[in-house]
Amino acid sequence: MPSFDVVSEANMVEVRNAVDQTNKEIGTRFDFRGSDARVEQKEYELTVFADSEFQLGQVKDVLTNKMAKRKVDIRFLDEGKIEKIGGDKVKQIVTVKNGIESNNAKKIVKLVKDNKLKVQASIQGDAVRVTGAKKDDLQATMAMLRKEVPEIPLEFNNFRN
């Protein structure tokens, strides 16, 4: 029976490359000379450091530009609150979302069922598996999900015939 998985996961290799390129650009830019601005990565957590809130915004702009160039959707980024770390220095934790949250997964399953296509959707951990008798029905489901769920970056993988 043909099936595919609906997932939402960032390419962490490209995220790492974007962080490296951001740090390299910050090191060479004149307006950051002598500052402590940088981006550090631990698994799915990016920590942005800067000397002021304005500089923090500049670093985040560089980071989002580098991610966009590397085809990493910025909807994966979940920004935390800005914290002061002594003097004027600030930091902000940016989490890279991975997987579909349960309420979004339920919304996707409900959309598939409400659309009256001849497919079934089930939640499989942090992904949604869609199965159907015909490949055309699965492709119609993919098109419908791309159109109806703009708030999360969806990918379709594990397509089985």
Protein architecture, described:
This protein is α+β, with helices and mostly antiparallel strands and 161 residues long. The chain contains four helices and eight strands; from the N terminus they run βαββαββαββαβ. The strands form two sheets. It has a four-stranded antiparallel β-sheet with strand order 6-7-1-8, with helices on one face. Strand 4 (77-84) and strand 5 form a beta hairpin. The termini are close together. The model has no long low-confidence stretch (mean pLDDT 91).
Question: Which features characterize this protein?
Answer:
161 residues; alpha+beta; four-stranded antiparallel sheet; 4 helices; 8 strands; 30% strand
Q: Briefly note the structural class of the backbone.
A: alpha+beta
Please state how the strands of the largest beta sheet are arranged side by side.
6-7-1-8
The ordered string of helix (H) and strand (E) elements is: EHEEHEEHEEHE
Proportion of helical residues = 25-40%
Overall, the morphology is: elongated
Termini gap:
7 Å
Q: What oligomeric arrangement do these chains adopt?
A: single chain
What are the segments in which pLDDT stays under 50 over at least 5 consecutive residues? none
Radius of gyration: 20 Å
What is the number of beta strands? 8
Provide the residue-averaged pLDDT.
Answer: 91
Largest sheet: 4 strands, antiparallel
**Strand fraction:** 25-35%
Number of helices: 4
